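hey can u check if this looks right to u? its 336 residues, i copy pasted from the old doc so theres a chance i mangled smth
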Amino acid sequence: DAHPMAIMVSVVGALSAFYPDSVNIHDAAQRRLSAIRMVAKMPTIAAIAYKTSIGEPVVYPSNALPFAANFLHMMFATPAEPYKVDPVHAEALEMILLLHADHEQNASTSTVRIASSSQANPFACIAAGIASLWGPAHGGANEAVLRMLGEIGTVERIPAFIAKAKDKADPFRLMGFGHRVYKNFDPRAKLMQKVCHSVFAGLNLEAHPDLQLAQQLEKIALEDEYFVKRSLYPNVDFYSGIVLRALGIPTDMFTVLFAVARTSGWLAQWNESFSDPQQRISRPRQLYSGVARREFVPLAQRGGAEASPRSAEAAPAAAVPSPAFAGAGVVVEPGR
């Protein structure tokens, strides 16, 4: 019953026990070897995590298949019958992996770099990144798209939910539209849009009402003046979520798949950090913003506390400065 991300965090962290010969982070050759091993093993670990979670036999990787096709093979093949990877599906998955490989200093990438600054081994650093990605605020955006589609339910209900999205007083929000960084169309989304349509072309959408719903929602949003004027175009999370659904990837594997994709970006950031001659351990500055001065109250005089012989002899109340982190309200200034 373990969540696949729990398996990923545990197994990737444990790789350092299997490869103690390649954890010397100061040796460029060992860093490269560790990076190659992780990029190669991540899809295998991810597929094994999936097979384990559904109780099916593990499928070994095939050296005859490319990276993305091999992952689909390990995910969906069974020992009982041959499985042929759909080349359109393999191409779609490869595009998803490429577009999610690296994207600025997001939470998981920053986590990897912070862990790296302590000179932890590479497997531990990547495991830390996976743990950060596991959080729903980071790696769960495309899952939110599918939950939204489930809430809308049918194509006939789209106009009502579009109206709710336009109503500022309504808490409903269209997930997968707009981007906090890209104020116009997400450039990754343009590529994913083409992939999405190519995958849809090979499906019977009548058998996939959720995908039919997504297609109609995309059409309305691209034409509606309200969304166009505000640049609320479908983003990469919208398209990647419905493409993964079309490929048969279960929802709880979405974040796992992004961990597979992000590993190459994380490792590039991790390796780059060692080229910085001024690298030192990351220690963000904390600014205490609580009460500056507090009156010390002896224990015997505090409400609800029973006086003891020792507390009865306590000194009179005196004004003392509060400890550095004694209260709530700590402001973190990163990068110091």
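Confidence is low (pLDDT under 50) at residues 307-328.
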